[in-house]
Specification:
Helix content: 25-40%
Distance between the termini: 124 Å
Radius of gyration: 34 Å
Mean pLDDT: 90
Largest sheet: 5 strands, antiparallel
Oligomer: single chain
Order of helices and strands: HEHHHEEEEHHHHHEEEEHHHHHEEEE
Strand order of the largest sheet: 1-2-3-4-5
Length: about 425
């Protein structure tokens, strides 16, 4: 019995030794994993980077803010320099230092500028100016990014003042910036501005040259697009016309003269318009911003790059695909309501020709021989901006009668009633008349 126990112990020991050996052999026969190198990142040859359009929203509007800060600094009547009683609270030496500290090293050396002569070497202003950017290019270097900027400025009455061109240098290490104001008479476009590869350190003067990135949200971008278009329309309507979608402007305005008339007719509204609602649709690199103002008017911006856009000043002249698809699923009553809402939008938009075109031919010829006669009627009857409350609906043969209460958005008028008679036709077409 003793011998059997000893034999079993010996067998167990041999088994354990054999198993350990096999495990060791198997472990050492496992294929070694190849060492994986870390991602070295994009290899950029800074000697070969090229000047390109700015496509980044943060960079674009951050640089816009830098230039606006410069315009504020060169305003010798700035509220930063005077108190509420018109007394100067910052002496001229400090004002000169503020401006000097924003200028680029290259500009200072070229113009031989000092804090003592800086006020004699720059274009000073004595009013608040607002910078409106149009285009921006950049050159990406090893420690700096340089921006070429084209735009113009307006005063607080939205009057055009002058074209502006700048070079803005950004020290990517110190997160500081400097500005080189360019003589607008020497440039015709952004492409005339050369960005060299000279790099230099921009010290933080702890006053006004720290680069602060502009936070970007969809709401902010909608506000900016609406604001730029508003300022263009008021100060440079001929330029703003170029931003309008070609198909839309041909259908809505036909020519520049009609558009300028529209801007004049709507000047009071344009001055006040502000973003009250928005919707954003992204399609690859393209973004569509639909903005709604406080008067219920819509503006549709189709963008490729920052401020590279075309705009529609309403969403009824050219129906959007989503609206078309939804309309086909509506019943008769909902289609009538949709078209009545379109009529209200046209009234608010002072779109007299569009309203005139909707009228039943016999009805309009019996009441207004020309669009000018009809325009005078609408101006007298509906001079303000309205929102509609749907009151009574009934059908009469092929037509439908929708009664609405129009409430003045600005609260200038008492509520008024309008009765719209609509006959639906093929597709999205319809004709209408108004109970007089």
């Amino acid at each position: 019995m003793k011998k059997i126990i000893i034999a079993i112990i010996i067998i167990l020991i041999l088994f354990m030794i054999t198993a350990g050996t096999l495990i060791f052999i198997l472990k050492n026969n496992e294929p070694e994993e190849e060492a994986v190198e870390g991602d070295p990142g994009m290899d950029i040859n800074f000697n070969e980077t090229t000047v390109e359009p700015v496509t980044d929203n943060i960079s674009f509007f951050t640089i816009q803010n830098c230039i606006q800060g410069y315009l504020n600094a060169i305003n010798l009547k700035s509220s930063s320099y005077y108190d509420d009683y018109g007394e100067q609270i910052i002496d001229n030496n400090e004002i000169a230092n503020n401006i000097y500290n924003l200028l680029s090293k290259e500009y200072i050396e070229e113009k031989k500028i000092t804090t003592g002569n800086v006020l004699n070497n720059i274009d000073k202003v004595e009013e608040n100016l607002i910078f409106v950017p149009l285009k921006m290019n950049y050159l990406f270097l090893q420690k700096m990014t340089k921006y070429a900027v084209e735009g113009f400025c307006i005063n607080w009455d939205n009057e055009y003042v002058k074209d502006l061109y700048f070079i803005v240098n950004v020290d990517e290490t110190n997160k500081t910036y400097s500005i080189e104001p360019l003589n607008a008479e020497e440039y015709k476009s952004l492409e005339d501005i050369e960005l060299n590869r000279t790099e230099f350190v921009i010290k933080n003067n702890e006053l006004n040259n720290e680069l602060i990135n502009q936070p970007i949200t969809d709401q902010y971008l909608c506000q900016q697009y609406l604001l730029v278009q508003k300022r263009l329309m008021l100060s440079r309507p001929e330029m703003s016309y170029k931003y309008i979608d070609e198909e839309y402007r041909n259908k809505r305005f036909t020519n520049l003269d009609n558009y300028i008339k529209y801007v004049k007719e709507n000047k009071e509204h344009i001055l006040k318009m502000a973003l009250k609602g928005y919707q954003v649709e992204r399609m690859g690199d393209k973004v569509k911003y639909m903005c709604k103002d406080q008067y219920g008017n819509y503006y549709l911006f189709n963008t490729d790059e920052v401020l590279n856009y075309t705009v529609l000043l309403d969403i009824y002249t050219i129906e959007q695909e989503t609206s078309k698809n939804a309309y086909t699923r509506y019943d008769k009553r909902k289609k009538v309501a949709y078209n009545v809402n379109k009529w209200v939008q046209m009234v608010n938009n002072k779109d007299y020709q569009g309203l005139y075109n909707l009228l039943n031919v016999t009805f309009r010829e019996n009441n207004w021989k020309t669009v000018n006669e009809f325009e005078n009627y609408i101006k007298e009857k509906y001079p303000s901006y309205y929102e509609a409350e749907y009151v009574k609906y009934e059908e009469s043969g092929e037509s439908a009668v929708q009664t609405i209460t129009l409430k003045d958005i600005e609260g200038k008028e008492e509520n008024k009633t309008a009765t719209i008679i609509i006959k639906l036709k093929e597709g999205l077409d319809f004709e209408m008349s108004i109970a007089l």
